[in-house]
Structure formats: C-alpha cells, structure tokens
Amino acid sequence: MIYEVIAIAVAFTVPAVLTIIYGKTRRLEPASLAEDRR
Question: Keywords on this record (predicted)?
C-alpha cells in the first residue's frame, strides 16, 4: 500500500516538475512547440 502511494505521488510530481521546467525554457523553444503542448 505504501509503495502504491509513493508511485502515485511520483507519477503526479514528475509531470508537474517537467511542466514547470518547460514553462521556464519555453521562451527558448519555437512557438510551434509551445502551441503543440497545449
């Protein structure tokens, strides 16, 4: 049960961190990629 909770927490945390990183570096990426993410 504990491992399942950790797995779910990681599953939600990783995409959130990637989204924040993408948001900060999105200005360096082409506008087309930024619109594709939406």
Answer: Membrane, Transmembrane, Transmembrane helix
